[in-house]
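Hi,

I'm pasting everything inline rather than attaching a file, because the server keeps stripping attachments. The sequence lines come first, and each chain or strand is labelled.
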Amino acid sequence: MATVKMPQLGETVTEGTVGRWLKKVGEAVAKYEPLLEVETDKVASEIPSPFAGTLTKILVEEGTTVPVGAAVCEIGEAGAAPAPRSSEPVASAAPASTPQPVTSNGERTISDRPQVATPDGVRYSPVVRRLAREHRLDLRQLSGSGRGGRVTAKDVLHHVESGAARFSPAAQTAASISAPAPMERVTPAAAHVKPVPVAPPAEGDTTVRVTQMRKTIAEHMVLSKTTIPHAWSMVEADLTDLVKWREREKEAFKTREGVNLTYLPVVILAVCAALREFPMVNATWAGDKIIVRKQINVGIAVDIEDGLVVPVIKDADHMSLSGVARKIVDLAGKARNRKLTLEEMSDGTITVDNTGALGSIASYPIINPPQAAIITTEAIVKRPWVVNDAIAIRSIMNLCLSLDHRVLDGSVASRFLQSVKHRLETFTGSP
Amino acid sequence: MVVKTVLEGVRDAIHDEMKRDPRVFIMGEDVGPRGNVFLITKGFLEEFGRDRVIDTPLAEASIVGVAVGAAMMGMRPIAEIQFADFIYPAYNQIVGEAAKIRYRTAGGNTCPLVIRTPYGGGVRGALSHSVSVEALFYHVPGLKICVPSTPADAQGMLTSAIRDEDPVLFLEHKRTYRLIKGDVPDGDFTVPIGKADVARPGKDLSVITYGLMRHFAVEAAEKVATEGIDAEVIDLRSIRPMDRAAILDSVRKTRRVLIVHEDQKFGGVGAEVSAIIAEEALFELDAPIRRVCGPDVPAMGYAKEYEEAFMPSPDRIAGAMRELAEF
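And the predicted assembly:
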């Protein structure tokens, strides 16, 4: 009999949620055959079986979160009988009572026990743990000013205010700070918001389990809408020439580059060029200062089965049209197959959301913190349009922008939007 | 505004309430011709007469017992215990009777009684003129306990206490009587019972204190301020009811707590303050709660060294502030 343990999916990740069991108890499993799906933050990964044999016992139920290294199931020799039902799954309770890893001979091991939080016996005060959780910080990255180098609450707050803390999934190690008691597991912004009373499900209602991804999306949305004062603006861009250009070029492009020529990479390049003109849009509010990012990393929203992910095109301003087009196809494919790495979803500095793909003509997007802006490309629609005091039929697209009003005022945002619009309207193949 | 001492604040509150309300009277040892041992009621006998300024025998149980009866019959007695050290014979009347009357009569009777007494050390009062008694009473529901430390609070809270429908134990720190001077509003004013006061705002740590220690804590805070430590001083002013919100607000702001009281540490008021913080604000704390209190010895000795060893001093408080800020 062998035990399968919760794998470490990323170097700062300390726990994982069992999303789905791909094998049933009693079923045979080949070595490297997908055994279960594990969710961490936004990534869901299939975990291959490290052994061949029969799944004899599931120790962690779907939807339960356990620390890295905790035993999740047992695999016996081929044809082994399932373990008796009487021994109920151990880890249906809170993470604090998660099973210790068990070696194949049943002994509890100390060495590969999940690392909960305090390397080198460092102790954190309750408020430091709470702040780290709320701001999703890895406390090991901070230097302490307290006695013996202890990290104090002020150290954490200074760190947050300095903008050093990034809301990247890779920073999702706050949970590593403590084995959190259930009562502590409050979403960051929920602390400031009174929950609306919810009537229990009535007959005919159904409930949907909140996946790790939904939870993360929810936390980010609440955080964004409760901490960032959003302002909104929209411009109309006449893309008639761009549409004609694409019609002309798309066959050759497909043959040459192997991917379809869409409008999105054109918009991304126009946004990059406009960002270089108005760098304040590529920025982060950091409390006592605004950090203007040099790198331009463009997040693109990709719909997937049960949610939405935002992979990031790093240094998009240095890429060619075909480079961006290929990167979009690559990232979107990985997103749909749930193969994105944490790195591929980190460090975005602005987001472009192609809402027009779903037919929308205007949206009010929510900023992806800690970015300062998000821009949407709406559907291109043929409309009667006044050109040189005559009415013509033109292809019009709306560009919508939500901005962090702490970082930007309307004038900069409007000029930025005008710049994007102008670049698209006068596009000649190299924006 | 007029500058008064704490003693003058106490005297004016009693005087003005006796003038305003004929039901108010004072009784106690030496309150008559002697005018109280601190001269608080000097001239009262001449102004208000023997029926309202009553000298009593040395019998504290009787002083409070008579006052409880008078209060139940509609009077507004002020029972004075000459020194808090002598209050023990009256414990049964205060705890067993006065505090329970409203409950025992299902609200049919109230006991609008004020028991005033000077307490505390630092005046070379030795074993029987130095004690702090608040911890012996603050466990008792039905009793309100005031510990003002400024002239305005003394006058305003004593006025509130006399007008209150329930028994109030009014503790006056005798060291503050003539030591502490301050502005007091003119005319009729009250300070509510149950509201703490921010004696000094700060952001690095919170000192929760009351009585004479409020002044020592502010002095210590000014001292460490020159070293870059910004301490907030919360003067509880009232021990029961206790202003939990003020305590928690300050803790949420500074995340570090120092509790200072002159009364002995074990089971003192600081124990309850710590428990409130631990129960309601654990996840705000960045350091263990600290207490600077009197030592767990039976009494404050007469010798200067004994007294100094017992009384928390501004220096000791400043030392604890530094350690807490550094943690």
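The longest helix of chain A spans residues 240-257.

If the labels don't parse on your end, tell me and I'll reformat.
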